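Pilot study result, target chain (400 residues):
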Amino acid sequence: MVAARPTSEGERLRIFVPHASELFTNHRAHGDGLVAFEVAGRLAKRGHEVHVMAPEIDVRGTLPANLHLVPPPKAAGANLASRIGYMRAVRSTYARLHRLRPFDIIHQLNPVYTGVSLALAGTRVPIVLGAYVGAWPKDADSPSIMGTIDLPFAATARRFIASLQQRAAGALILTTPAAESLIAGVDRMRVKMFTIPHGIDPAIYEPDPSAPDTDLPPTILFVGGTERRKGIYVLLEAFAIVHQAMPNARLLIVGAGGREAAVSAEVAKMPERESIEFTGEVERSQIPGLMRRATVFAAPSFGEPFGMALLEAMASAKPVVVTDAGGPAHIVDAAGGFKVPARDARALASALLAVLQQPALAAAMGRHNRHAVETTYSWDRVIDRIEMVYAYVRALRSRS
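Predicted structure:
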């Protein structure tokens, strides 16, 4: 990976974001959209002028003065014709705004949809792509299988276009090494790769000293989608084992995903059902309070690309149990939790019991995780590092 110098003190950049996320939002339950809003909004608060495009925009409240939202083009959509129409809108919007005052940086945020930044090829403005997150493993209920037929020719074409896109960029940002699978010719690209995680605001998740864990029943918290690949059924199997050893243990399930009815039906069949609470989807503002109810956070997914709910748990000073696949495997260390094989209910139950039955260990892990968030994953640290990437690509451009 490359070292870079920070942006000069007081330097303010004009930044064009051609694709922030499929949904750019500050309140809806959409991880990519929420992260994109934080990145763009915090850059604007630092004085950079940020112009954002996205197929759908849904924001509330007063925006930072330097954050400018471009109305979504009518061509927005998932099919090829809509994608081409969106790219044309990107090019024309960029040209119009660039004539008013030149841009310093083009930054396509996550997910880096194939081809979009190529609409700006030849602009001579440095392009930054990412942050890339790891890919979900192929699974029976993943969108790539259930929603579309992934023809070999189409997959080859996407890889080719992605490689063109990445070669044309000045920098590629990855959240964790798990995202390297998305980089074409990764060994050749390392010279322009930077690892910068998504961020979080630690102040929102400040542990509440008035509600110590000892006053609450031992509780396992799951926050995420109800798709099978999220590991929810493995967690239910593990909880049956945990409950047999600790009858006072509880499981709190928070999330949606379109398969709530199937999960509820599975819970209803379990002898432990009275010890399981299933809230469904909740407003993001409720998450900190739910985190305070937890003794341990479980993320049993089959290969989570990154893990924003995991960061929320760590910021809440909670010990965590995750699988050893995907992004979380690179975020969690032995001082903050346990990593277990995906799809292994017995290993998951054993790790959860190790935390639930050792309060001192749980507290120490929670403190470690909170410190990690403050020193590595706070938004201030993340934006500092993004500004360093901007300085790096601009220096490269000025020498070319």
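One observation from the pilot: The domain at 202-377 is CATH 3.40.50.2000 (Rossmann fold). A full batch analysis is planned for the follow-on phase.
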